[in-house]
Design a protein that fits this description.
Blueprint lengths: L5 H19 L15 H10 L9 E7 L13 E6 L5 E3 L5 H10 L9 E3 L5 H4 L2 H7 L4 E5 L4 H9 L3 E5 L3 E4 L2 E3 L13 E5 L2 E6 L6 H12 L3 E7 L7 H14 L3 E5 L4 H11 L11 E3 L5
Helix pairs in contact: 7-8, 8-9
Length: about 300
């Protein structure tokens, strides 16, 4: 018998525990997210009161990831991405360890004072680890997070001088961006950031605990824009090949043009998505910078 690597062991145990919990307790949780009704008046408000950003100005920089892209940066389990070129500069998530996170910001020569908004996808350590250290440098900032975040975390954020926007329903974040609203998950409730561009929507996910397909479908229900790119953690590390292929195929059927899975997506998922999307699959990882030049 071959010896399992640590990753393979975790993956197999995770699949077993997930399947047992799902089958014996909550069968409907197989999709990761309970169906949630969307208030069409809210969707109409978002469509009317957000505008399209010029894709030519857009710049997405992965600041924290466990998948390497540029070797000069230190990888670690977690995710963070800087969004530039919109009406506001947005920091999406903040990795796991504050020293690594702040070091990567420094290596990219990013001035924290030039960041206008902080958007946190969900309440897990590998996405909020650098928040407090960042707020020590940039305290006067708006932090958008889902309403279910721990009260202690919210109190600590406010104590450092930041304002908090607690999101439970789809909400406008800036003139060019909106949140899909808090989506339920048996792992952790989460929201995704949607950037409206003149070439289609770009969806940023932290871990996609409610389900990557469900997040994209919800985005389409809000604005019905074409989806240019889905990027971030797809949370498919514990899925088997058949499940991943079904989800990848479904995203393509929905009309997703480009994908850039990283963080908790898993190597098998990356391979399957790369094969299915071909030259519309974008390699991602720590240090990756995505601009209009990546879209043909």
């Amino acid at each position: 018998m071959s010896v399992l690597t640590r990753r393979e062991s975790i993956k197999r145990v995770g699949r077993y525990l997930l399947s047992m919990a799902t089958v014996t307790i909550y069968p409907s949780f197989l999709s990761g997210c309970s169906d949630q009704e969307l208030d069409q008046s809210i969707a109409a408000h978002i469509s009317k009161n957000t505008s399209y950003a010029d894709i030519g100005n857009l710049k997405l920089t992965v600041l924290y990831d466990n998948i390497p892209y540029k070797k000069r940066l230190r990888t670690d389990w977690g995710f963070s991405c800087l969004v530039e070129g919109l009406d506001k500069t947005i920091l999406f998530d903040a990795g796991r360890f504050d020293n690594i996170f702040m070091s990567n910001i420094s290596k990219f020569q990013i001035d924290p004072h030039q960041i206008d908004n902080l958007f946190i996808s969900h309440d897990h350590p590998d996405h909020i680890g650098g928040v407090m250290k960042f707020l020590e440098v940039r305290p006067k900032i708006n932090v958008a997070l889902v309403k279910s975040f721990r009260s202690g975390f919210k109190k600590a954020v406010r104590k450092r001088g930041a304002d908090i926007t607690e999101i439970d329903r789809p909400s406008i974040v800036t003139n060019n961006c909106f949140s899909v609203g808090e989506m339920k998950s048996f792992v952790k409730n989460e929201h995704a950031l949607v950037i409206r561009t003149d070439k289609g929507s770009i969806i940023l996910t932290g871990c996609a605990h409610p389900g990557i397909v469900e997040i994209v479908k919800r985005t389409k229900k809000i604005t019905n824009d074409e989806v240019l790119l889905v990027m971030g953690g797809f949370h498919l590390l514990m899925d088997d090949g058949s499940s991943i292929r079904k989800k990848a195929t479904r995203l393509k059927e929905i009309g997703v043009q480009y994908v850039a899975p990283t963080h908790c997506s898993g190597e098998e998922a990356q391979q399957i998505f790369a094969k299915l999307f071909g030259d519309r699959y974008l390699d991602s990882g720590l240090g990756r910078i995505i601009t209009a030049n990546d879209f043909t």
